[in-house]
What does this fold into?
Amino acid sequence: MASASDSSPPVAPVGEPRDRVDGRAKVTGRVVYAAEAPVRNAVHAVLVSSTIARGEITAMDAASVERSPGVLAVLTPKNMPKLEYVDAKFHAEKRLPLGDLRIYYAGQHIAVVVADTLERALYASTLLRVSYREEPPVLGLGDPAAKIEWPKGEMTGPLQFEKGDVDAALSGTGVVTVKQTYSTPIETHNPMEMSATVAYWENGKLTVWDSTQAVVNRQKALAAVFGLKPDQVRVLCPFVGGAFGCKGDQWPHTFLAAAAAQAVGKPVKLMLTRQQMFTGCGHRPVTEQTITLGADGQGRLVALRHESKSDDSEVGKHIEPCGAGSSAIMYATPNLAYTHRVSRTNIASATFMRAPGENPGTYALESAMDELAIALKMDPVELRLVNYADRAPHNGLPFSTSNVKECYRLGAEKFGWSRRNPEPGSMRAPDGARVGWGMATATYPAHRFPNQARIRLMLDRDGGVRAIGAAATQDLGTGAYTVFTQMTAMLVGLPFERVKFELGDSNLPPGGVSGGSATTAGVGQAMSEAAGKLRQAMLKRAQENSGSPLAGLTPDQVVFQGGRIVAANDPSRGVELSAVLKGGPAYIEGLNEANPAGADNLPAKQKAYTFQSFGAHFVEVAVDERLPIVRVKRVVSVMDVGRVINPKTAGSQVQGAVIMGMGQALLEETHYDPRTGRVVNDNLADYVVCVNPDVRSIETYFVGEPDLLFNAIGCRGVGEIGITGIAAAIANAVYHATGRRVRDLPITAEKLMRPA
Amino acid sequence: MDEPADSLASASFFTGARDVAAGISRREAIARTLKAGAGLSVLSQVGGLLRGATEPPPSPSAPGPVTVTLNINGDAHTLAIEPRVTLLDALREHLGMYGTKKGCDHGQCGACTVLVNGERVNSCLTLAVMHPGDDITTIEGLADGDALHPVQAAFIKHDAFQCGYCTPGQICSAVALIKEGHAKTDAEIREQMAGNICRCGAYQHIVAAVREAMQPTG
It folds into this structure.
């Protein structure tokens, strides 16, 4: 187990449940999302989408569109300016929009109509006449026409893996086996804010307001595609109206908005429709996973095999790493194998959706573990304790910290697990509904990407000292503004109220993508380093005064504390920050070196560990006897995510992830017409997500200790772990209530009513 | 606990059942718009677009801009707009009042909820020209100077939002819910807030905030 050594002690306000610093602006309607950019005289762009799923455009007649009142431009593959597909790593797709006449999926953008008002652009876009040569679309994992790939895996670690001999272990004497197949449908992110872009050109420079999880990656991608230098492109995104992964990679509409703005010589505003959110910015792909578990008489896993299939479009780049995100990590076993297969279909391109891989992977594995517990007549928590892993099974490296046993213990206690009658169908609510109790483990890796940050100290008009932290990172609703304000306050030893944090602008020091639950850990590390640089600069300036109490000290020997810079071993020896700043430049700043702290660039001591968060969910469901609708009555979720910067916002994130997982377990499925490949339920009435009455009682707890091997702040991520394991916990509770195992999400009433 | 009886009427996992909620439900809102005789053209036009219509739609009957005066948050705004402009787009694109959000444009999510004569209305389902003389209140009009409306203050205190995009609609909806006076229990608050989707999942905190704001102040 790691020990804290070289870090400063926790200092308020880190760890305090602060209200969001952007709360007042949000409740008064004053925050600015991308489509609300303060840009004068913007005109409106509307996208036209393909109505077929596979084939080629043979003709397009835009004459009546162009004649329609108010229309300024129509971009089609015929007149689309030639852009260059470079810097592929930032792109969600392997092609640029309107670059050719091929149709890869229904909903693919085929034209852009720009007009002076939204209404005129919308109307004119209906006048475009398109002819296609249609081909039968390839749909679904089972389509024999689908091209099959077995990806090796790059960022995810190996995707085709075997250690030991799984087959031999499974055929051993006395081995209890479970082999089952679990499937999950296509799920669509549907953040409340549709993706939007406002773009304009000025003197050869491009400015883009974009709803994005990565302003700097957008800047790089736009610069590369339009043949500009990065400093000729500025991307702004002060607020994001939810993302969950669908605003992570660069999707085509941003290029189209910039191209349209160039074509009309005016600022252009483009917002996807809710319908286009189902095809224009990704979804979680369909998965089918076969899990084989073998255990000895004590419940110890002797073998685990996890075979996973997912799909993507021919131009997509996504692999859902189900086994690599779950079975590779969770339980100790000498014999382990997992595989991943991708089918190429004519469904819109897939992408990351909240815990890609870990989420469907834990649904399958944690369901199978429940089935194994039943086969062994063991308590599900006991089975997991027996198979506790202190190191990651796939690479043998110990976890930097793991408190999963404490997650089980506290969760079971808060939930009242000891009162559970293991017999399925044995528990009833006072109204006669069947009651089921289920549990599952949650897990998500700790990531951090290269990040830079800066902290400036300056004198206020009132003579007091104020700090401004900044990084080109994003607040997706996660609380980034608030937690980084807390962190800045801690790092410079100033009250919360005297600190501000700026983000969402590519002109700031480059923060990374807000994905992989990496923001707090990555930017936190960069800020901690920036604070070190600031200490150096402040000390140097303080020591310029003759007779400075800090004379002779090195930057490592001083700390910021209570508005002063003081000797670490003798806080009475120091000077007021205001005295150091007085009569100097407008501000003194600390900016860290570009920090290559991606997975491949970890310092040597970190390469000896696996950084992983764990948690546990306990769930009670009630299922009506006559019409078996499943209701989640209460959830207790306990998470170990390292140091929690703000328990209020972190708790909200876990709660929200649990609710999204409830939707996944019981409601959410994107349906496609099996003949045409078009989305049938591309709206929020038919793609059903949890609404207020679906949520009864969700309690969240944190049991983490600071993970100081991972970064100087000791935090891992919190955005995604809550949605891992929850679907399995609900499915396990449904089995406990009804004796029926539905292995195909979502668990709807009609599936429970089918004859067994 | 104030759980509703597990009857089919409260089976909120089914979209149809959501319309059981009191207050202005989706079904009611659509019905009202249709009664007013103006919603159909908007819906069919949008439908045509989304399906990439291959048949030419009927030619636009737009008579060009008309003048309408809207009373928003106590101020009169005179606009020259086409009759097909929704109240939502009038607020956002013609008046630059972006506090009211577009989340689906189909009356399915509640993000665009505003108060019209004190009643909650999905502003994407009604046309601006239908509202001369009405008192329209948006999120920008709820606070009294620096003093937040009690619902706004309670939303901050209870962390009743994350990304904030559904928040203006949630708050307008909650203000009307309290005035309607039908919700006495948490279960009733949940049902009567069912028309406002929060994808970040702040529902439990929204209920706590509404409950607190409902308390008569002493």
Remarks:
- Helices of chain B lie at 15-18, 26-35, 39-50, 87-94, 150-157, 167-180, 186-192, 203-214.
- Chain B has one domain: 16-214.
